[in-house]
Every structure is written in structure tokens, then in C-alpha cells.
Amino acid sequence: MKKSNVGTYLAKRGISRRSFLKYSSAMASLLALPSTAVAGFTNQFLKAKRPSVIWLSFQECTGCTESLTRSHAPTIEDLIFDIISLDYHHTLQAASGEAAESARQQAMEDAFGDYYLIVDGAVPAGETAVCSTISGRSNLDLLQETIQGAKAVIAIGSCAAFGGLPAADPNPTGAAGVSELMERGEIEQKPLINLPGCPPLPVAISSVLAHLVVFEGFPALDDLNRPLSIYAKTVHDRCSRYHFYENEQFAERFDDEGARQGWCLYKLGCKGPTTHNACAVVKWNQGTSFPIDSRIQEGAQLYEENCVYCHSFDPTDFKTAPDKIADLLRSGDIRSHSRLQFSEDQLTILEKYLEESQ
Ligand code: SF4
Ligand code: SF4
User: Domain boundary residue among 188, 219, 250?
Assistant: First the structure.
């Protein structure tokens, strides 16, 4: 089946080059391309063929698909209908049962040897392969068949990449990730990209798809097949609590003074130092926050609920140093602020938020 290019599709959908430029610039930046390369990247993008994609979901919780639908630039509709040709998706498609099975067969036939196969969820293998079946066929069986015509595989989420939660000890279903199945020779070897995370960042998925569309090849990968643009550094490297780590200021309990001050969570089991991901930079919910950042988020909320009525929406516009602001509020010397009743804990959080915002 002949696929149109991205530019033709965008034109048909009435999406202007200007608004697409915004999206392609965001993707170029996520792929760590230099700003001088954005115009060329956009032109290539518009000329590129929309690749056929088959998406299989196995032993999973739908979180990975949810993550993609939270991809704010572009929207899920754009991603599916404009950038790629999502010809089969277990969860998002309307068809079910035999109709879904024949849709998969048709998608494979139409683009045999030329489609990308996306997998989310772990795959029960061996004697326990029957633990998860679709249309009466085991996940392993479906994967073995579908991988034959794939030109590359993208394992989305920690479950598909490395087995994730389903493979946790004692692993009653014999679950394994795609790379392990390839290593064991249970599925065909194909070029593989792993996008771990539970779920992975939406931008990890969309930027990798953008790279595949434009360059028809993989981005630079590390030794675990993860794109360097997203996974080269750890969460710890760019954590907002890193200065507390350096100063050896650690929370020892979730309700102690250190936790209230937003100190480092290392002694509470934080895995940031060994977790390679870009959450601390890209963040979640359209760049709002990420779990370790939650205290800072509380500070933003305090600022928005109390300060923006008289001051700027942008806390960096404050000319007074953050610690002076908190001290002024503590002193009660500003009469116009007497209506504000901050607890000492809230003042500390606000002060920290203002410091982090500078
Ligand atoms: Fe769900 Fe996490 Fe597995 Fe994705 S990686 S399927 S979000 S458990
Ligand atoms: Fe590192 Fe975790 Fe401490 Fe952040 S909270 S600095 S990721 S150990």
C-alpha cells in the first residue's frame, strides 16, 4: 500500500508549515540536534514517508499507551495520523476478536519487511507462555509471527525492554523482555531500541519516532540500546535536590525535618543515581514536575495561590532575594501582607521554590 509523505498529510489536514515547525523544533531539540540543523530537519520531515507501525501490547497495564496519549506535542491524533501510519494497535483500535486479528495480518501483508514493530508489556515464555493469550494465541506466538516482517523493533516501557514488574521474582509467568527473548533465540533478531521507564516519557517515544521518520535509522544508542539523547544521564545528575546530596543533607524519614526541607532522598531509597532518564529535565504533565520535585511543586502552588495577585506570575521578576522575602514575611513588618498566614513549614517551602526559580 502506498503511503503519502508527512507534508502531504499535513496539508490535507490543514496543518500549516508554521505550526509544524514548532513541533519539529521541539523534536530536534530533544534529539540534541544543533539549532542550525532545525530547518533541514523540518524539510526532511515534510518530505519523509509516513512509516507503517504495528503496535502489540502484551503483559502490561496500558500505562505505556497512556503515556503516548499524554504526548503534548504533537497530540495523539497528530502522532498517529500525520507522522506515522499506525496500522495496528491492540488497545487504541476499535476492532476486536477476529476482526482485530485480520487487521494485524493485513497490516503485516501490506508493509512486510518495511514496518516498525512497537511492543509494550513483557512476554510470558516457555511452559507458561499460555498465561497471556490474544485470540487463543500466546503473546510469544504473536510476537514470533509479527517480528518476521518488521524492519526494527521498539520496546516501549520497562516491561517490554527488560521484563519489568511481570518478570520480578518469583516471575510466576516466566515473563521476559524483547531483548532477552532475542538473546535466547526465541524470537528473530532484529534491530532494537529500548525505551525503558514505567511508563517511559512521552517525548522519548515521540522523539524516537521522529528520528526514525526523518533519518530512516536509529538515533545513537547506549549499550542497552537506549537513545543517548534521553538516557545518557541519570536522574540524579540533574535532580533539583542534588545540592542537598552534595552537602550531605539527607531526609532519614518521610516525615522528618529533612523531608520537610526538601533534602535529598538517597537514604530513603531513591534510585535516581542509577536511573538513566530525562525526567528531571523534561518532567511530566507538560513540563510541570516529576516525583522527586514534589516539594518544589508545593512551593509553586503556594506562590500561585498567595503571591501572584500583587506580584508577577513569574517569580524570577522578584528583585528581593528569596531568603529576604521569607524573612520579611516572618517578621510581619509588611502590613499589606498581614492577611497571609504562612506556617513556618510553608515559608521554608516558598523560600526554596523562589531560590530554585532564580
Ligand atoms: Fe505498565 Fe510500567 Fe509495564 Fe508500561 S512499563 S506496561 S506503565 S508496568
Ligand atoms: Fe539523587 Fe535522589 Fe538525592 Fe535527587 S533525591 S539528589 S536523585 S539521590
Answer: 219
CATH (domain of 182): 3.40.50.700
Determine the pLDDT at residue 339: 73
* Residue of the CA atom closest to atom 1 of ligand 2: 236
Counted domains in the chain: 2
Angle of helix 322-331 relative to helix 344-357, nearest 10 degrees?
Answer: 160
Pick from 200, 193, 196, 156: nearest CA to 67: 200
Summarize pLDDT for 165-223 with one digit per residue, the tens. Answer: 999 999 999 999 999 999 999 999 999 999 999 999 988 888 899 999 999 899 999 99
In single-letter form, the type of residue at position 251 comes to A
Highest mean pLDDT among 28-37, 98-107, 135-144, 305-314: 135-144
- Region 246-251 average pLDDT: 95
In this structure, are 177 and 103 located in the same domain?
yes
Q: Which ligand is nearest to the CA of 160?
A: 1
Q: How far is the CA of 61 from the centre of ligand 1 (A)?
A: 6
The CA 347 to ligand 2 mean position distance, Å, reads 23
* Atom 3, ligand 1: residue with shortest CA distance: 159
Please state, in angstroms and rounded to a whole number, the distance separating the CA atoms of residues 306 and 206.
37
Max mean pLDDT among 90-104, 229-243, 318-332 falls in 229-243
Contacts of 125 (CB under 8 A, 6+ apart): 140, 174, 175, 176, 181, 184, 186
Whether residues 305 and 174 fall in one domain: no
Shared domain check, 257 and 196: no
Q: What phi, psi does 315 have (nearest 5°)?
A: -65, -15
Residues 38 and 159 in one domain: yes
Residues 26 and 146 in one domain: yes
Tell me the ligand closest to 58's alpha carbon: 1
Question: 322 C-alpha vs ligand 1 centroid, how far in Å?
Answer: 40
Q: What pLDDT digit, counting tens, does each position of 265-297 carry?
A: 999 999 999 999 999 988 887 777 788 887 666
Q: Are residues 269 and 304 in the same domain?
A: yes
70 lines ligand 1 (CB under 6 A): no
Write out the H or E segment, with its range, that includes residue 304. Answer: helix 294-306
